[in-house]
Amino acid sequence: MRYKNIIVVAVIAALITASTITTAQTPEPRDEYPEPLVGMAGVFRIRVPLLNVDKAIELAYTIRNLTYDLFQWEIKYNVTAARVVLERGDMFLNRSLELRETAPRRAAVFAFVAAVHYSHAPALANPVLGKVIRANLGENYTITEQTVQAVINVAGELRELLVNAIDYASSIGVNTSLPETLLARGDEKIANATSLLEAGNVTEAFMYAVSGYRTYVRAYHILVRITFIEYIREVVAVPEEELTKKLLEERAPVAQIAAEKLPVWVREHVKAKIEKGEIRNMREIAEELNKTALAIREQLRTRERENLENAIKRILERHGVPSNIITDQELRQIIESAWREGKRGTELAQHVLQAIRDKIYERLGQYVPIPTPPIRRGR
Question: Strand 248-250 to strand 44-47: parallel, antiparallel, or no bridges (unpaired)?
């Protein structure tokens, strides 16, 4: 049981601390999905389990309270993603409140998704550091005393937000010992940066200042993660032993999914080469698939030209055109010439047929009504 709980905690933490933020619209969960998918981590899909709507909304508000000031601070530094993520979280939370009475299941899902959005706030503190550093570089983009001091100052601002968040989390019963430990570690690094800067060691001071800032970010990550985990056991309206099964669903590896999309004969071809020892690693598999694809493409192109040649021969025979007027070799040359010009499909057939008409008229002095293939129109 302890092992299962560790897995659940690790996967949830991976979800809520993901650093990649997207501004794409999040699809609205629908009633026909009993357990809507809200994220992925590693080889697992993370699904919203059966939720208690009141606890889910409480979770969303708690994570929002924990991160709201951080979002506002990031927005002040023109981190656009922070504004978008906060607005998206508020949108889901408001939708949850609207559906609380009429559709509690959907309301709980919306609240859970809102909490996940709010939990991205610590990751968005990293762009703030980048903006501050770029704005305070010296000539030729060099690190100066001003650069280091700017990092120390912005780290101090983040520290203040972190301390307030720790106080709030502690007031609602969250164990904040680990974030406090990281806070102290960050303080030590910033103190070292200040001392090194005063001693004139700008480069090393910069390294300590950046490390201190990132330690504060990590502490905020951990704080949000711990708070989320404290609530998740209460939010999930299922017995604890069912938690892992409800939250995690193993998904097939990408390589397996890709292999299943290949034609059967291609899979068998590659499998046979592997068994013979002719293919030993993924790179060789990719090379073999590429070679097979090129061979198939060339076969299809050859078949297209051969089919066109045979079709034109039948047309000429049907119209009584003597075989010596347009020889097989000449016909193939006309087709190959048009092919090299980049003509394909209907365009290729039209071009070749027109060339045949012209040659017949030139040699027989009469027009042969060879039909023209129709132009394929867009659907």
Answer: antiparallel
Neighbours of 133 (CB within 10 A): 20
Q: What is the pLDDT of residue 256?
A: 54
Q: Distance between CA atoms of 169 and 163, rounded to whole angstroms?
A: 10
Which uninterrupted H or E stretch holds 9?
helix 2-16
Reading the block at residue 37, the tokens are 């998918």
For residue 193, the tally of other CB atoms under 10 A from its CB is 26
- Strand 37-41 versus strand 248-250 pairing type: unpaired
Q: Are 344 and 373 in contact (CB under 8 A)?
A: no
pLDDT tens-digit map of 160-182: 999 999 999 999 888 889 999 99
Domain ranges of the chain: 2-250, 256-364
For CA atoms 98, 99, 100, 102, give the dihedral sign. positive
Rounded to an integer, what distance in angstroms lies between the CA atom of residue 25 and that of residue 120?
16
132-148 tens-digit pLDDT = 999 998 888 888 899 99
Handedness of CA 150, 152, 153, 159 (dihedral sign): positive
Number of residues that this document lists for the chain: 379
